[in-house]
């Protein structure tokens, strides 16, 4: 039953009691009533009123991409903002009358703690919120959901859980410029450059992703890493390499079966200082083609190359100007090359074709062809970006 003076929305009913960890209960409730407009958000000592239920935009299909067993998808217990002691947002988050189309996986780049308790999870969520609000200047936590190393799932940005349960609208986040409305951001506690996530975190991640896919109609193939769209190490080499497995396991929870080919994405490689080889040499030719690099390409990602990448990023007003050549910069650097073209961009194609022993190169080398030449297989990572009007904070 609801508390006095409050009513339950049809999308936020709790069925049963919460179980520790990733218990199989429906996520928390959302209260009916319009969202605040000019008043500050309510204190974090009790449930926070959320946006009222709406029918959703006309012509938007219902959830798709799930198999016949989707009704059996386990539902994670998600701690709402007030449960982990969230601060009041600086102002109410914006709610978009549309569904997201993908999920972005992040890591917090923090310590790989061995404290798997609920208390540790809640402290971590508060620390992230403090950093995002006080250091980044954002209105609230940037991500929609957070998962601790102990497997505890928490709502990140206010109202994200209620809108997920509704399955028609999405709260604007701040986890990745260009992907803050069309993608749900999930922060995973820890640093996964050289180690794998804990089994508890992994299990909660796959169950949470399956539930998000079910509610929003997102295909299990549409799970990506932060580095697919930005110049960043996130979500770590090991967690990023596990994304094909994550797509397959999420599909399995939805009653579908994905082949290894279907679960693999032709992503842009992340290049950094210390890398070497034909991929780096091709990048150097492209940088010289763009006027950011001087001297002869030698296949070594050294300080000279990092400086050239940073110069190119500044010239193109990249959000991440850090010398890492990742998913934000590659699409701008790898310009279309047509048959008969001469110059450094064409030389980059030749270097990669020789390294991959490609007998013939298409007449037009566009982004999907670049990705194949760069050594990645599978369908190309889509370039879709947020609509106009996103605050990115």
UniProtKB/TrEMBL annotation:
Compositional bias ranges of the Pro residues kind: 33-60
Gene3D superfamilies assigned to the protein according to its UniProt record, in alphabetical order: Peptidoglycan recognition protein-like, PGBD-like superfamily/PGBD
GO molecular function, one term: zinc ion binding
Residues annotated as domain N-acetylmuramoyl-L-alanine amidase: 88-236
Residue intervals passing through the bilayer: none
GO biological process: peptidoglycan catabolic process
Domain of life: Bacteria
Start and end residues of each Peptidoglycan recognition protein family domain: 75-230
Signal peptide span: none
Cited InterPro entries: Amidase/PGRP_sf, Amidase_domain, Peptidoglycan-bd-like, PGBD-like_sf, PGBDSf, PGRP, PGRP_domain_met/bac, TAT_signal
Matching Pfam families: Amidase_2, PG_binding_1
Chain spans, region Disordered: 30-67, 374-393
PANTHER family listed in its UniProt record: PEPTIDOGLYCAN RECOGNITION PROTEIN, PEPTIDOGLYCAN-RECOGNITION PROTEIN LC-RELATED
Family indicated by similarity: Belongs to the N-acetylmuramoyl-L-alanine amidase 2 family.
Name of this chain's protein: N-acetyl-anhydromuramyl-L-alanine amidase AmpD
Organism whose genome encodes this protein: Pseudonocardia alni (Amycolata alni)
């Amino acid at each position: 039953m609801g508390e006095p003076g409050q009513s339950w929305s049809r999308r936020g009913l709790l069925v049963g009691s919460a179980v520790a960890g990733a218990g199989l209960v429906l996520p928390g409730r959302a209260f009916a009533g319009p969202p605040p407009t000019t008043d500050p958000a309510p204190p974090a000592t009790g449930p926070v009123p959320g946006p009222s239920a709406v029918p959703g935009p006309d012509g938007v299909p219902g959830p798709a991409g799930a198999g016949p067993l989707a009704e059996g998808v386990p539902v994670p217990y998600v701690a709402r903002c007030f449960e982990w002691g969230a601060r009041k947002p600086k102002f109410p988050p914006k709610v978009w009358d549309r569904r997201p189309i993908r999920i972005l996986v992040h890591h917090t780049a923090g310590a790989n703690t061995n404290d798997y308790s609920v208390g540790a999870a809640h402290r971590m969520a508060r620390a992230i919120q403090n950093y995002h609000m006080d250091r980044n200047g954002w209105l609230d936590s940037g991500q929609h959901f957070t998962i601790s190393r102990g497997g505890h799932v928490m709502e990140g940005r206010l109202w994200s859980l209620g809108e997920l349960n509704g399955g028609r609208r999405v709260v604007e986040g701040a986890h990745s410029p260009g992907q803050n409305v069309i993608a749900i951001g999930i922060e995973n506690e820890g640093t996964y450059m050289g180690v794998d996530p804990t089994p508890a975190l992994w299990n909660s991640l796959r169950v949470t992703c399956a539930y998000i896919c079910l509610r929003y109609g997102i295909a299990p193939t549409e799970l990506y890493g932060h580095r697919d769209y930005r110049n960043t190490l996130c979500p770590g080499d090991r967690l990023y390499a596990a994304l094909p497995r994550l797509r397959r396991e999420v599909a399995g929870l939805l009653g579908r079966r994905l082949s290894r080919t279907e679960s693999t994405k032709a992503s842009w490689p992340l290049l950094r200082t210390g890398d070497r080889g034909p991929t780096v040499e091709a990048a150097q030719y492209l940088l010289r083609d763009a006027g950011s690099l001087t001297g002869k390409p030698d296949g070594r990602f050294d300080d000279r190359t990092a400086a050239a990448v940073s110069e190119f990023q500044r010239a193109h007003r990249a959000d991440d100007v850090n010398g890492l050549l990742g998913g934000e910069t590659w699409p701008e650097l790898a310009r279309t090359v047509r048959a008969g073209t001469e110059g450094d961009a064409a030389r980059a194609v030749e270097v990669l074709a020789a390294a991959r022993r490609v007998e013939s190169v298409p007449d037009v080398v566009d982004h999907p062809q670049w990705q194949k030449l760069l050594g990645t297989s599978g369908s190309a990572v889509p370039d879709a970006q947020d609509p106009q009007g996103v605050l990115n904070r």
